[in-house]
Amino acid sequence: MRVLALDPGAARMGWAVIEGGKGQQATWIASGIAGLDRERADNEKYQPYRLRLIEYWALASGPFLDTYTPDFVANEIIPPATGRAFKSNGVQGQLAATAITALHTMAAARNIQIKQFGATSIKKAIAGDSEATKVGVRNGVYALIPELKDMKHHLWTKKEWMDESDACATALVALGYKA
């Protein structure tokens, strides 16, 4: 089985394509960061940016899905605006939901199944602790796919790249792996 997983963010999201399944070693296919920054040093108004974000993800999702031909798409559930996550007035969560919804729409148009997981479930499965930090999750990904430490560690020590390792963790959970 092959999964395309996303770790939601507003402007940028981590993405990963992992292959595997029960009784098999997980195989990393590709991963990275994709997204669309706001214009004019974050002075772009919400609605124009939201519309550009929808267009970006609608156009980017097709090539992702066609290139990597996943059996399903997976992502972390976006928490409610009132939760601790995104530490904002909910705008970041709304923008992340916009991007995820655009990808889900393109996946559904291709009859690709969609799976979602809570952050706590991902942390528990991959890091062994429901309160794990991004570093703990990253290290859990390394334990399940050791070659990623040599390939990605120079990036995954930087906060702006840790959404990529989170996407790998989401993909691993979607395929049934646990640390």
Report what the structure shows.
By secondary structure, the protein is of the alpha/beta class. The chain has six helices and five strands. The protein has helices spanning 46-68, 91-109, 119-127, 134-144, 147-156, 162-174, and strands spanning 2-7, 12-19, 27-35, 72-76, 113-117. A five-stranded mixed β-sheet has the order 3-2-1-4-5, sandwiched between helices. α3 (119-127) crosses α4 (134-144), α3 (119-127) crosses α6 (162-174) and α4 packs across α6 (162-174). The model has no long low-confidence stretch (mean pLDDT 88).
Short description:
The protein contains six helices and five strands; from the N terminus they run E-E-E-H-E-H-E-H-H-H-H. It is of the alpha/beta class and 179 residues long.
List the defining traits of the structure above.
single chain, 179 residues, alpha/beta, five-stranded mixed β-sheet, 6 helices, 5 strands
**Terminal residue distance:** 19 Å
Average of per-residue pLDDT values: 88
Strand percent estimate: 15-25%
Number of strands: 5
Low-confidence stretches: none
Biggest sheet: strand arrangement? 3-2-1-4-5
- Main sheet characteristics: 5 strands, mixed
Instruction: Name the helix and strand elements from N-terminus to C-terminus, one letter apiece.
Output: EEEHEHEHHHH
State the helix count.
6
Content-based structural category: alpha/beta
Estimated helix fraction: 40-55%
Form type:
globular
Radius of gyration: 16 Å
